[in-house]
Write a sequence for this structure.
């Protein structure tokens, strides 16, 4: 009797999990099958039916040629690389100072980062807009880059946790050998923070790639389109051609999905360390 | 050269030079806008003219007296309601995936998948799912024999559109909550469960008496995230329905953006932003209060 009760419980578990997975995979599945249909085929068949030919890449060609998706990928790549390089540099610098030195203003600096988290950037955008304009960054890649560079408190806490685990003996030994503090940061602290840096790079890459608000607001210029704004424009022009839109959706979904399947361990670590802490 | 200075001097130089740019960035793009926002909220600036006429509390009066503006929060309520459902589902799956189960890693990976997907692409994907005539949801419902339900205009019906949009949010963020809940479950010491087993507690009893109480702080954290998230919804309705039909799915932030950038009424938009900021700060203050009280017990 005991064992049959457990079997029913397991059955319910698997059943609900399968329903969950079905709900998750159903929308992308529909997008995938329709991305390979020609317009006639799309109009004449049900949106649930499989395409005649899974090697029909015409829609994808149209998306890249007419949609300007390639420059969208190029632009977002530049923005990600530049803003992350500076973000990691400044983030490790702040963490090194806060993690290794004592000074009078330290609680204030840390507090400034902490209080900043309660100001959601989406609420202050009306004022930020004016600042970006007066800096001459409106409609340049500089706008998203400066807005993405700033270190956030979760990033600093993550780095501080790592720095605390780097034995101070390493610093002292280097000092005995006459290394400057800058050298200690560059050759000891920065390299030893690599695991945290890797996690941050992955998470921030995904969030910048997926952001719509900032590029939409600050870079309306056509040639500065990133994947999200390019997709919005493409949809605006081709509202009725769902087969084309499906192809565009698929192309834009793919990079982060691939990244996720290869690097999921880092992503789970980053998400949980940020939230549970 | 730098290395020949005493470590005292080096320390001062490092502290100043390493913090300078990061703090300038923080001040310029977080604190300065917040201060400017408050200043603008007392003017009726149009966004481009050099003079910013001072109007005192007029904008705030307008926000509180124009029932149109506050009614928008009713639309945000759908996201809150769905957020609660989202947390319940996330807790359920977290508990299931924390038990000994074949293939639980695969399930976890798949259920988390939507979180990393591009939001705009997801919005259009659901635009297709919810489409009235070609939409896969209606086709699916019809194929189940639910003919009547299969003719619903999910995004075109006033009472439905916000819940349809919010369910897209649920689809996207449930896995995120779930992963956090799983982490909190793994932090519960195993010996508590052993002890409960020895005392003869059933699995439901264990859930009520041990698992959920131990998850309480994380559940609270996630619920507060749900509230602030619901207050700040923007991209889904903006991309998918443009706030339609007839403004039925416009959210508060969307209204702010429209007031500022479409109607050039920066003063009013700033006052609306300050009020939203105020709400968020209140929610976070309550959260701190609740969490710290829970910690002292």
């Amino acid at each position: 009797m005991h064992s049959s009760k457990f079997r029913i419980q397991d059955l319910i578990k698997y059943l609900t999990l399968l329903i969950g997975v079905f709900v998750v995979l159903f929308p992308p599945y529909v997008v995938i099958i329709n991305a390979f249909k020609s317009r006639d085929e799309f109009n004449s068949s049900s949106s649930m039916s499989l395409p005649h030919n899974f090697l029909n890449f015409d829609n994808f060609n149209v998306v890249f040629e007419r949609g300007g998706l390639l420059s969208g990928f190029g632009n977002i790549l530049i923005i990600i690389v530049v803003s992350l390089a500076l973000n990691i540099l400044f983030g490790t610098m702040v963490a090194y100072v806060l993690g290794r030195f004592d000074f009078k203003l330290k609680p204030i600096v840390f507090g400034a980062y902490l209080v900043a988290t309660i100001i959601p950037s989406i609420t202050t955008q009306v004022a930020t807009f004016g600042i970006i304009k007066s800096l001459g960054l409106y409609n340049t890649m500089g706008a998203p880059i400066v807005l993405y560079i700033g270190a956030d408190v979760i990033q600093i806490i993550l780095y501080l946790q790592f720095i605390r685990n780097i034995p101070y003996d390493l610093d002292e030994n280097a000092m005995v050998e006459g290394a400057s503090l800058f050298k200690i940061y560059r050759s000891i602290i920065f390299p030893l923070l690599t695991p945290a840096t890797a996690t941050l790079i992955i998470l921030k890459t995904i969030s910048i790639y997926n952001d719509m608000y900032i590029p939409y607001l600050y870079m309306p210029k056509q040639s500065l389109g990133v994947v999200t704004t390019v997709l919005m424009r493409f949809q605006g022009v081709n509202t009725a051609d769902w087969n084309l839109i499906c192809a565009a959706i698929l192309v834009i979904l793919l990079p982060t999905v691939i990244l996720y399947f290869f690097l999921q361990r880092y992503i789970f670590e980053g998400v949980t360390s940020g939230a549970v802490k | 050269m730098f290395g020949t200075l005493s470590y005292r001097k080096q320390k001062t130089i490092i502290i100043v030079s390493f913090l300078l740019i990061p703090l300038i960035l923080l001040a310029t793009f977080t604190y300065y806008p917040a201060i400017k926002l408050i200043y603008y909220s007392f003017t009726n600036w149009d966004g481009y003219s050099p003079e910013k006429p001072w109007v005192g509390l007029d904008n705030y009066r307008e926000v509180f007296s124009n029932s149109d503006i506050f009614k928008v929060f009713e639309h945000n309520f759908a996201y809150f309601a769905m957020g609660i459902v989202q947390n319940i589902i996330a807790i359920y799956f977290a508990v299931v995936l924390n038990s000994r189960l074949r293939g639980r890693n695969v399930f976890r990976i798949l259920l988390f998948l939507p979180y990393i997907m591009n939001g705009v692409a997801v919005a259009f994907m659901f635009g297709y799912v919810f489409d009235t005539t070609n939409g896969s949801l209606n086709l699916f419902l019809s194929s189940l024999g639910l003919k009547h339900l299969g003719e619903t205009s999910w995004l075109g019906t006033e009472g439905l559109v916000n819940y349809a949009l919010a369910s897209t949010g649920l689809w996207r963020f449930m896995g995120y909550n779930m992963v956090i809940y799983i982490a909190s479950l793994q932090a519960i010491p195993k010996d508590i469960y052993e002890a409960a087993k020895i005392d003869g507690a059933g699995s439901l009893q264990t859930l009520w008496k041990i698992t959920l109480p131990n998850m309480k702080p994380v559940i609270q954290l996630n619920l507060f995230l749900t509230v602030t998230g619901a207050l700040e919804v923007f991209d889904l309705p903006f991309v998918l329905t443009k706030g339609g039909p007839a403004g039925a799915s416009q959210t508060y932030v969307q209204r702010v953006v429209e007031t500022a950038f479409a109607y050039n009424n920066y003063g009013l938009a700033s006052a609306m932003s300050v009020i939203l900021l105020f709400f968020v700060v209140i929610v976070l203050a309550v959260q701190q209060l609740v969490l710290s009280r829970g910690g002292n017990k």
